[in-house]
């Protein structure tokens, strides 16, 4: 493997663990906190974390604003709302992780040459996730989650082409500050919050892991690997979520989930080891 690829994988491994853990944590917290409120808290914690990390310096501009709306605001609202209101949260999660397919489509439209090995790897990766779902009932939550996957893909391509050299802490501080008031403005649409000590602690942990540490790993992986490889590598997150859900909640993956995970791993390997 090239040194660039190895540096990228250095970020993807921790990313899979950190973002994978956010799924069981969100499941626990959502009993007492509404999805939009969870999203707002994540943005608030992320803003405080990145402002401190960047010594209260932020990266401001039109391109930064577009990136914030696509990668943070729309994406996370669709993720939390879609998986919460869907009758099949697992399928909603798969819709979010169709992101690599849309990244591949958008990059191809923009003229990027994509190897057949990468295309096969990404298709295998998403197919593996789809096999993990035993129910295929479509509802509004599924469609919202799919919109989240499209928004994340657009944000990934836009960031890679316009802001890859930006300071990650300064950019994330700005994106959190932009997304927080927008999310708070629509929070009353579906609001409930039972402030117990356990809930508050878990919300803070969720914000630190999912919004702060996770996005440091994600944007650094994008810098090192490019949009297509990094997006394929993000398919490791649902697999980590299965494992960590078992360890934290005792939810054992089914046979289809295990088979699908193996297929996804093969697809990720094919894509991240392909030539640019």
Automatic annotation (TrEMBL):
Pfam families: EamA. This is Transporter. One of its GO terms (cellular component) is plasma membrane. It is a multi-pass membrane protein. The chain crosses the membrane at residues 12-30, 36-53, 65-83, 89-106, 118-134, 140-159, 171-194, 200-218, 230-249, 255-272. Keywords: Cell membrane, Membrane, Transmembrane, Transmembrane helix. It comes from the Archaea. Residues 15-133, 140-272 form the EamA domain. It is found in: Cell membrane. The keyword Transmembrane applies.
